[in-house]
Design brief:
Elements: E1 6-10, H1 17-26, E2 30-35, E3 48-51, H2 57-63, E4 69-72, H3 82-92, E5 96-98, H4 118-132, E6 137-142, E7 145-146, H5 147-152, E8 163-167, E9 174-177, H6 179-191, E10 199-202, E11 206-208, H7 210-220, E12 227-231, H8 233-245, H9 251-262, H10 277-280, H11 287-298
Parallel strand pairs: 1-2, 1-4, 2-3, 4-5, 5-6, 6-10, 7-9, 8-12
Antiparallel strand pairs: 9-11
Length: 299
């Protein structure tokens, strides 16, 4: 397929967007940001900023004329609305679409009907339909957990509260990648369009377990006392699914589903022993790097 030179980014001001934008600029792509409203000085002077109506295929199609690839980094709430952006990309002749997913086990078919996951599969099916029609190609980037979130939020361990609930004894493995490296991986995908066409690409900067991080924390702060509990991942998943079935669509209920599947290790393939690190230039972090992150999280 043709070389990708120009890239449009949706969701550039979100959590991941700025890192993607930086990586694309550094990789010398021509970058266009799609936004609801322009703000002077918000982006690098080299970036073309275009105001669009994200609910309008016509508006988005016009904004995507001459663009080779679209990278979506929209928020979780906007995942289902990407169908409009995909339709516009196909109409504008865009070659490659990378949807906003960037998850851990979001590509496992066992989870397709689970709350919190079904939207990802609907988007993938929509992309595959466009591919079958010869309209565009796609790549999904699976990157595991965001490294920054694993240490800043009480997901794997509650570093601030010195508490941890070990899932299945705490030895389930999880791949994780930093936001900056995810940005570089996206640039790498677009630099290798043929090798990354119409498939899930996986990157893994580190594979960690709860026990590994707990041991590091205890070694760094032996005077600290940790409150440790245990739960089966399957039991936590049932709690979340039962809550949703009962009409509880709260964040805590949804979090139980996401945590129990993402930290279930091999059950849903959370650790990427086989990955595309070499293709995309992603290096694995050393144990010392992980130790430093734990030290920072401990405060």
């Amino acid at each position: 397929m043709s070389e990708i030179r120009s890239v449009a980014v949706a969701g550039a001001s979100g959590t991941l967007g700025p890192y993607v934008l930086k990586a694309l600029i550094e990789a010398k792509f021509q970058v266009r940001v799609l936004t609801r409203s322009k703000k002077p000085g918000q982006y690098d002077a080299s970036v073309d900023v275009v105001e669009v109506d994200f609910a309008s295929v016509e508006s988005l199609t016009a904004a995507l004329e001459g663009i080779d690839a679209v990278v979506s980094t929209v928020t979780m709430a906007a995942i289902p609305t990407q169908t409009v952006l995909i339709d516009a990309a196909a109409a504008a002749g865009v070659q490659r679409f990378i949807p906003s997913e960037y998850g851990s086990v979001t590509t496992n078919p066992k989870l397709e009907v689970f709350p919190g996951y079904e939207s990802f599969f609907k988007i993938k099916h929509h992309l595959q339909a466009k591919t079958h029609a010869g309209k565009l190609t796609w790549t999904v980037l699976a990157c595991g957990g965001f490294l920054e979130y694993l240490f800043a939020e009480a997901i794997v361990l509650d570093f601030a509260g010195r508490k941890v609930t070990l899932l299945d004894q705490g030895d389930n493995r999880l791949s994780a990648t930093s936001l900056a490296t995810i940005g570089k991986a996206i640039a790498g995908i677009l630099k290798s369009p043929e090798a990354t066409k119409n498939r899930v690409v996986k990157v893994s900067e580190a594979i960690v377990t709860q026990n590994q991080l707990l041991r590091l924390a205890e070694a760094l702060r032996p005077e600290d006392k940790w409150e440790i509990s245990k739960v089966a991942a399957s039991a936590l998943l049932k709690e979340g699914l039962d809550a949703i079935s009962a009409g509880d669509f709260s964040l805590p209920a949804m979090f139980k589903i996401i945590k129990s599947t993402g930290l279930a290790g091999d059950t849903y393939g959370a650790a990427y022993d086989e990955n595309d690190n070499e293709l995309l230039g992603v290096e694995v972090l050393a144990e010392e790097d992980i130790k430093n992150m734990v030290a920072e999280a401990l405060g």
